[in-house]
Amino acid sequence: MTPYHWSSSSQAAEDKNSRLRLGMIGCGSKGRDNARQASKFGDFVAVCDVNRSSANAYAQNPQLNGDGKRRLDVYGDHRELLAREDIDLVVCATPDHWHTPIYVDALRAGKHVYGEKPMTLTVEEVKILRRAAAESGSILQVGNQQRSCQWFREAIAIAQSGVLGENLTATCYLGMGPKGGPFSPKPVPDGLDWDRWLGQAPLVEYMPQRGSGSFRWWHEYSGGKLTDWGAHHIDIAQWALGVIETGPIEVEATGVLDHREHCFNTAQTFAGTMRFDNGTTLKFEDGGKKTNGILLEGDRERLFVNRGKLVGNIVGKITQDKRWIDQIRAAARELYGGPYGQREIELQSYENFGEFDGNLWEGVKNAHMKNLFECIRLNASPISDVVTVGNSTIACHLANIALRLGRRLKWDPATEQFVNDEEANAMLRREQREGYEIQTA
Predict the structure, then answer these.
(1) Which value, in Å, is the radius of gyration of the alpha carbons in the chain?
(2) Which residue from 34, 65, 144, 337 lies 20 to 30 Å from 54 (Cα-Cα)?
(3) Exposure pattern of 29-64 as b/e (b: 16+ CB <10 Å)?
(4) How confident is the model at residue 350 (pLDDT cuts 50, 70, 90)?
(5) CA-to-CA distance for 372 and 56, rounded, in angstroms?
(6) Of the candidates 274, 282, 277, 219, the residue with the CA atom closest to the CA atom of residue 252
């Protein structure tokens, strides 16, 4: 594919000839959300989904094609879309078990990628994807949008400043997983390629509850709350603890699982702990009725952060001192050395900041998407890069493995293997169904 050169002129960014050409893979609700952001910076030319009716509806969506009248090509197999030489970047929002296969194929086809979290289905896939990204020269931005959020980065900067004290600990409250089943087979809906939807996962009869609305609650396709909200909160917690460049040395977890056939089989309730070589500890739990978010605490102070608030006595002290808050915000900006897609949202006061604000979060999503386009233009590393997101993704997978085995596991971050544990190491990868193996070369 001929490399695409994006003009550095801000005026040219509005020129249709200078905008990146985009493909959409996975036409569900999250895809619509991502497409709304991406369409501000590029123009869609094709869409793909194993559900033909979803893809056809997308092709008529004005969010993707401007006035809704421009023709977008429709595909049921992502490889056909990736074979096009006029596509520079693909936005992928499929169920989790399709993330790595599509990201790898896209990178090897010379495309840039905006991909959803969790980055992979397994630990082995993290290694595969890292290699593919390194070899391709293309840029992959993972949808860990909290990395592009001002107050999450401020929480990280506060934790790393030392003001919380010694014995730093993070606790991630991820929410309880649903229970359900046994479910019964149903006829495959018209237009749905169920075999392709299953992909590398085992071949089973169609059940609506296995499909795109609730795929997260099956180990075959995802990892439950530990890879859903864990991909967000464990990621930020590792960054705050200063261990985003590595992984834990020990992990243990317990939880409630439903082992019956054709039932949701990811954890319903759970609690566990990761320990790191620098002496810090990361706890994770469903949290029961506690508010979803991250608690960061040392032996002197504590603070809590989620998508609606940043609170704690220390936050009040910092925001009352302009010099202090300027120092924290400067440190938060320095956490990432690359470009930001837009001016950061300035929260001059945290007094009335306590509920999720959709308008504020829309700005966060916009900044995260634009960061990718800026990084493509400047050939810079995105804020959600494949290496460090890979580390936090591995941590989520380790938590699930420890939970399923029900015992403490020792992990070597250098070799990315469990220490003297063949049973646990066998769970780092999955058998892939014939015909849907990830293309590693």
Answers:
(1) 22
(2) 144
(3) ebbbbbbbbbbebbbbbbbbbbbbebbeebbebeeb
(4) low
(5) 27
(6) 274
Give backbone dihedrals phi and psi of 255, rounded to 5 degrees, phi first: -175, 175
92 three-class SS: strand
Q: How far apart are CA 438 and CA 52, in angstroms?
A: 23
What domains does the chain contain, in order, with CATH numbers? 12-145 (3.40.50.720), 147-378 (3.30.360)
Phi, psi for residue 428 in degrees, rounded to 5: -75, -15
- Calpha distance 326→194 (Å, rounded): 53
Check: CB of residue 271 under 8 Å from CB of residue 288. no
Query: Could you tell me which residues come within 8 angstroms of residue 402 by beta carbon, excluding any fewer than 6 positions away?
Result: 251, 252, 253, 272, 408, 409, 424
In whole angstroms, what is the distance from residue 434 CA to residue 143 CA?
Answer: 29
Q: List, as own/partner pairs, every contact residues 106-109 make where C-beta atoms lie below 8 angstroms and the sequence separation is at least 24, other chains included.
A: 106/78, 106/82, 106/138, 107/132, 107/133, 107/135, 107/136, 107/138, 107/140, 108/132, 108/135, 108/136, 108/439, 109/1, 109/82, 109/83
Cα separation, 332 vs 151, whole angstroms: 9
pLDDT at 360: 82
Nearest CA among 360, 144, 349 for reference residue 233: 144
Count CA atoms closer than 13 A to 338's CA, side-chain side.
22
* CA neighbor of 368 nearest in space, from 402, 328, 336: 336
User: What integer pLDDT is reported at residue 305 of this predicted model?
Assistant: 95
DSSP helix/strand/coil, 142: strand
pLDDT at 5 over 50: no
DSSP 3-state of 339 = coil
Predicted TM-score (pTM) of this structure: 0.94
H-type alpha helices, 180-312: 194-198, 225-228, 230-240
